[in-house]
Each structure stands twice: as structure tokens, then as C-alpha cells.
Amino acid sequence: MFVAFDLLEPYQFAFFRHGVVVATLAGALCGILGVFVVLRGMSYIGHGLSHAVFGGAAASAVIGVNFFLGAGLWGIASGVLIGRIARRRIIGADAAIGVVTTASFAVGLVLLNRYGQAQKSIEAVLFGSVLGVRTSDVLAVAIVLVAVVGIVTLWYRTFLFATFDPEVADVSGVRVPRVEAALMVMLSMTILVTMRVIGTLLISALLVIPASIARMLTNSFARMLWIAPLVGAFSAFAGMNLSYWLDTSSSATIILVAALTFVAVYAVTGLRGRARIGALHHI
Amino acid sequence: MIREALVRCEHMSCAYDANVVIHDIDLTVHKGDFVGIVGPSGSGKSTLLKSMVGAVSPVHGSITTAPGIRMAYVPQVESVDWNFPVTVLEVIVMTRSKNRRWPRITAEERRDATDVLARLGLTGLENRHIRELSGGQQQRVFIARALFYNPDVLVLDEPTSGVDVRTRHEVLHLLSELHSQGLTVVLSTHDLNGLAAHLPRLVCMNKTVIADGSPTEVINPVVLEQTYGAPMEVLQHGGMPVVLDHGPHELSPITTKIS
To answer: Do A171 and B17 touch (CB under 8 A)?
Structure first.
């Protein structure tokens, strides 16, 4: 009873409650999209797009446009641009991400240097601030999560085909460029609604680590799509609570929980593989 | 007898960006054809096949397909990541993704997939992860996926690339069987003796069509030198042409210096 009371102590603070909800939802959201990101070999897209959205946020602040509108459009445009450049044979997806997102980040930086507080904004973008979470932030993340779950469920086969074999998908009538654009839009929206709260470092980690853990645990694409969000949500929830008790950065603690889970799963699946090989030697 | 033309290329050229890969192609695929496209690496075989299935558009000339025909494309086995987390059944039903909502595989799809797998000798592998398949099985799964689409024309890019002799025989036997069942088959290959010489019709190309006819008509030293840019000898064995590639004649002997 005493322990339970203690564990619930941080929940007396509204900011913590909001922070836990946003981080957990963001963990699930990034987990789902991370499956596509990891299987497409675009692990740096999260990191890159968050930097690109930063450019949009800076531009919005300078010209006095609503943050969500300005940064959202900027992020979507960057995502679509990455998709288009990557489709040209001579440039790979990694290079396209590098070019578009660093250029976008540089634009934001220059604008802030010239017209605003660069240092403060960069830290806010990198680490976010769970202290500043509002009900509208929670709502925004929840809406994007519901939309992403709906889209991925309804067009599951299309997304699967376009991810596994885009060339044949295209020939079989799947509009692959449209699928890729949809994925980029979902990623941009995810980054947009979570960036101010949990920061770009955490977004990148939550896009890559839970999906990689899910990949080690299963050989099924469908199962990956529910294991990855569960791992993401668990890491975020556990990390948020631990960060309160350890008095550490919530973003860093969430990443560490996810990374430790990765190490544990890596070790266990590796041991299982070795055991299987050992059993073969005894036949 | 005039056979129905399913695919017709007229003075067709294709390019990637500014790089022209094939030019001035004139070629017609008729219903019931079993055509092999042969040529060296970089000769534009894959691009020609992709243009047939609509994945590459011509920059000059035209390509027309008979109205309403269904074309299925089988890419090279190496074109996908075989570690990708999908089962054989999931790969097979992929081609019916268009306008298909929800992840669930219907009973009808499962039955059709089981039929196709049985036809290709893959019964019992439905729930296997694709990584667990042999090279020959992977190739057959790709063909099964294409057949699940109920095509009129099956287009295969190097179906025997990187496979052993036994698998090559299996693939050739399978394609011959499908062709005898009425399917039109177009494939590319660089394997002159193992595959091309066994097909009823060959198209030799190097950026453009050099010769088009039966193996006995097109497999001759003149056409092969024009196609491959190197002299080749052609022998006859059991009524079939056999190509011998002697390689450069003036190779200096390899000497080992022992001190």
C-alpha cells in the first residue's frame, strides 16, 4: 500500500500526468511508423525530419504564422521532397534525407540567428519539454495516433506490398509514390505534434528502437505492427516514471529504457539462436 | 494464321534521366509466345521487360498492349530483402492489394493461393518465413505470386540468375508447362546454353534488337558477335546450338616464380 502510494506520487502533478500520457501515446505512434522506417532502411528519417520541421517552426515564428500550420506544411513538403529525390536512381534515400533535412535545419538556424533566440530554441527542439505539456498537446498526439492506426489498418496490404517490393507493387497497380507520400505525411505529422513535448532525440529513438526490438522478436510484419507500439509505449511510460524518481531527463531516461530493452532482447534472441545451432550439432 | 498481338513496341526508346538505355526497338509479342530476350549485361533487357509491364515509359516511339490483358512481372530474386518479415502466403496474396481493405486474408484468397502453391510444388510452405526457402523455392514463390494475379502474360527478369543447374532445369520445366497451358511467357536471360537455346523464340539485343527468331536462326557466330561484341563459336549437339566462348585468344600464360 505504502509502495503503491509512493509510485503514484508524481501523478499528483498535472504536468506529469499529461507528460506520461503524451509520451506513452507518442511511443505507440512512433512504434507503428518505426516498422516502416526500419524495414525501408530509413532509420535516420526521424532525426532528419525533426530537423526539417525545426526549419519550418523557425520560419513560422519569424513570419508570424501559426506553428502547427507553418511547421506542418514545411515538414510534409520536406518528407515528400525526400521521397521524390530518393526515387531518382542516382541518389539513395540516406543521401536525400541528409540533403533536404540539413538544408531545412540550416534555414531555421539562420532565421533564428537573425531574428530570434537560437540557443534556446535548439535545446527545446532537441529535448522538448514535458513541463509545458497542455491538454491540446495530448489531444493532438491522440488524434494523429488514431489516424495512423486507421490508415495503416485500412491500407495494410498496400503499405506491406510497397515496402517489401515497390517495383512489383507499382506494376500490380499500387500507387507506390502515393503510399510513400502518405508515409512521409504521417511521419511529419507525428513529429509535428510530439516535437515540442518530447524533443527530436526521443522521436528518433522511438522510431528506431521499438521497431528493431519487434523485428528481433518476430518474423511477421503484422506482429511487428503491434509489438513495436507496445514496446514504444512501455519504454515511454517506464522512462517517464523512472525519470521522476531518478531526477533525470525524461527524454534520456525513455531512450535508455528502450535501449536496455533492446540489449536484453538482443541477448536473449542471440542465446536462443545459439541454443538452436547447438541442438543441431547433437543430431 | 494471324495470331493476336499482346504487346507491340514500335521504334521505342527508353531512358533513365538523360541516359538512353534502349533505342528504336521494334518487337511484337503474340498470344502464346514463349520469348527469351538475350544480350550482355547493360544491354537493356530489364528495361525492355519493365517497359512491357508499364514500369518504364518510352521517351520516343510507343508501346501498346492489347486492351484488358493482365501482365505479371517476376523481378530478379535478388531485388528484394529475403529477411523481410513475411510468410510465403503473405507474399503470394500481395498482388491483390489494390482496392483491398483490411489485413485479413480471405478464405477465397487462401484457397486460390493454396492452389497456386500446389501447382508449383510448394504445398505446405504457406506459413514458412521467406528466408527459410531455398533459391529455387524463392524463385517459384515469385512465380506463384505472379500467377495468383491471373495474368495473360508472364514477364520474368533473369529467372535463372544465380541458381544451380537443378533449379534452372526446374524453372525451365515449370515455365514450359505454364506455356503449354496457354500462358504467354517473356523472359530475359544471359544463359545461352542452359536456357535460351531451349526456347522457341529468341530476341538478341544490345540496346536495340539485333535478331529475332528461333534459336537455330539467331544463335550463330555473326549475330552473337554483334550482340556480345566478342567472337563465339557455335556447335550443334543433338539438333540444338551450343555456344562456346573461347575468351581472348592472346592471353599470356600465368607464370609462378619460385625462388
So the answer is: no
